[in-house]
Amino acid sequence: VQLVESGGGSVQTGGFLRLSCAASGLPFNVYTMSWFRQPPGKERDFVAAITWNGGSTSYADSVKGRFTISRNNGANTVFLQMGSLKPEDTAVYYCAAGRPYMNKLVGDDSPEDYSYWGQGTQVTVSS
């Protein structure tokens, strides 16, 4: 199983980035896909998740209204569109796969809910 993130980089406050995560070696279209992030010296926190068919999404309160998660099952890819970026969004962003055949997401997911992880991509937002 491989999850490969891309699209990270350095932007100024208020900027935009679009992260992508390409999956291989697993039945992508049965898994909930999520994004987590880990700021320097801190724990890995939930950002957003999307069910296997895209029918349900959930977001951390800190990113609601600014970030959008989406997926393309035909391309085995999940995306995170990030807007109105703030310095506190600076972190390594990880995509993860888990929770197969979930139909509805409620609340924040935990890293323990996910079986497969990418290596992460750095996002740096400067003021």
Please, could you describe this protein's structure?
With 127 residues, the protein is mainly β. Strands 2, 4, 5, 6, 9, 10 and 11 form a seven-stranded mixed sheet that branches. A four-stranded antiparallel sheet has the order 1-3-8-7, with no helix packed on it. It is 0% helix and 50% strand. It is built from no helices and eleven strands.
Report the count of strand segments.
11
The helix-and-strand class reads: mainly beta
Note the gap between the termini. 37 Å
Bin the strand percentage.
Answer: over 45%
Task: State the helical fraction.
Answer: under 10%
Number of helices: 0
Largest sheet: 7 strands, mixed
How do the helices and strands follow one another from N- to C-terminus? EEEEEEEEEEE
Topology:
Elements lengths: L1 E5 L2 E4 L4 E8 L7 E7 L6 E6 L6 E3 L7 E6 L4 E6 L8 E8 L15 E4 L3 E6 L1
